[in-house]
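Case study B.
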Amino acid sequence: MITLAEKNQRLEKRFDSLRKQNRAGLVTFITAGDPNLQTALEIMKGLPRAGSDVIELGMPFTDPMADGPSIQAAGLRALAAGQTMGGTLNMVRSFRNNDQDTPVILMGYYNPIYSYGVDSFLADAMEAGVDGLIVVDLPPEEDDELCLPARAVGLHFIRLATPTTDDTRLPIVLRNASGFLYYVSMTGITGVGVVGSDSVSSAVRRLRAHTDLPIAVGFGIRTPEQAGSIARHADAAVVGSALVDQITDGIAEGRDPVKAVLSLTSDLASGVHQARSRSLV
Amino acid sequence: MNHFKHYSDNPDKHGHFGEFGGRFVAETLMPLVLELESAYRTAKEDPLFAKEMARYFDSYVGRPSPLYFAERLTPELGGAKIYFKRDELNHTGAHKINNCIGQILLAKRMGKSRVIAETGAGQHGVATATVCALMGLPCVVYMGEVDIARQQPNVFRMKLLGAEVVPVKSGARTLKDAMNEALRDWVTNVETTYYLIGTVAGPHPYPEMVRDFQSVIGEEVRQQLAKLEGDGRLPDTLVACVGGGSNAMGLFYPFLSDLGVEMVGVEAGGEGIGTGRHAASLNKGRPGVLHGNRTYLLQDEDGQIEEAHSISAGLDYPGIGPEHAWLYEAGRVSYVSATDSEALEAFQVCARLEGIVAALEPAHALAHVIKVAPKMPSDHIIVMNMCGRGDKDIFIVADALGVSL
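Model:
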């Protein structure tokens, strides 16, 4: 039997290396095929050099119920440009031609996966070089659907914990979790609202009492300063809507969306990298 | 295999109707969905809850709704004996209020201070706004921009009742998108807010709970028909339109184990189920996961949800309740479709022959009755759910008939 550790270690290695450097990681989200396949691929390939430690690649869906206007629009742009699940997996393949180290997590909703066929999807995702999955509408109650089959082939299944996940619920959420724990720092949809550093700090402490998994914190992080303040407490900061907005605004204002996204990524990365050295002063 | 008793045993404790149903929601909502389930279990066991519902059904909704023998349509069609279950006579003009009374009482028990809902035709929005006014709770109704444009009377009604109507500009700007937006509100305001879903869809326990609240329809039919036709006389055929499918589940559920009772759900065939412009999820869709449950969905080959089309805003949804998906696969209920023009024709026939201006939704059910009744013997009893009245549809019908008002 193939164990997770044998098959898929990019994510473990990345968090190990971050721990050795005593710094938090930067997790960046973009939507596959937004605004089109070629541009999205160019952005993706540029992300590691700009300072992204882990890439979350959104699988577009017509009905993203937990996403705010930015990521909704990104998904619809990608679908309008002809993005498919096959195209998303191809994007990962192309990325892997040049990058064997940066972990890639596919993030989205269950229906496009279910429609593709769970077994074929898992086989193709493994072969393409995907490291893990975040599927927003699959809570632990539905682990038989995808989580357990994914773990069995060696893909991480990354769980979301939220402010509504209390101490009774947390062990259920963590039961089959792997890779890292994604703490959604507020109730609500992506890209709307701001997180308070204090509440994040206490939430991270609470989560650490329940798990040894690295803890990434996201939802509402837009600036290098915010990313930095998260990075003081968490193992990684996740930024999505702010990057996606760079694509939206770049197109609207006639700027190069690739440069716009990568430039914000660099700024976010410096915010994250400096967070702990500053906190020591 | 003697499994017929199990037709009414669903769902299982995880909310599954066979492979359908379930709880496919974001983690933020899970604790709430579990809390709702537990609150509903407690309420279901509490005779006081049933008593309170019965009191509002009796004095506020106007139940029981009559079972009416269609005395001109029956001879006109020259076949089966046709009854209408007159749920269009309920307060607010449709069956939607049955479910809203149940859920608002539950919301109060749970101590929620704010209610949200999605609406397509506006009937569920009006019913929700009504019970919120009754209970003194603030109400926000999400409604697609397209539906707002075609259902102006109901939009105004909701505002009169004190609700805030939020136009939904995303996606196709119809019911599916209104549901997405309501879920986004819920995920944001999860502690204070009760999401009052209007149909037998969504995450467990909604499909079961809404069905239970609507089952008063079928239970009354059983008693009323026995009174009119003699003890023990059951209907031969039940007919109801299906969008999400709450009026149909309400009529069908109490009869599921009576295997002699044939049941037909009528989907919206739009411009024809061969045209790609329809809302026939069971006839033309395939299983998928949306809005918290697995069910039949209109979707493309890549699992992207397709837009539904129907002249009736209340049937304009690319999915259907999971219990219908299960009953379809189990073969217990058959699902057919009626087109926009068939529904329009039935709408006019009903007005002229019976003096009843039906909503466009049950006009689909009537269109099917008009197709099949003439071939049936005169002792064959059809009960059709007249689940809503057509005041809200006057402008659409006029427009479709080329009449300017």
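Chain A touches chain B at residues 60-66, 68-69, 72, 79, 84-85, 109-116, 136-142, 159-166, 169, 173, 184, 187-189, 192 (CB under 8 Å). The remaining cases will be described in the next quarterly update.
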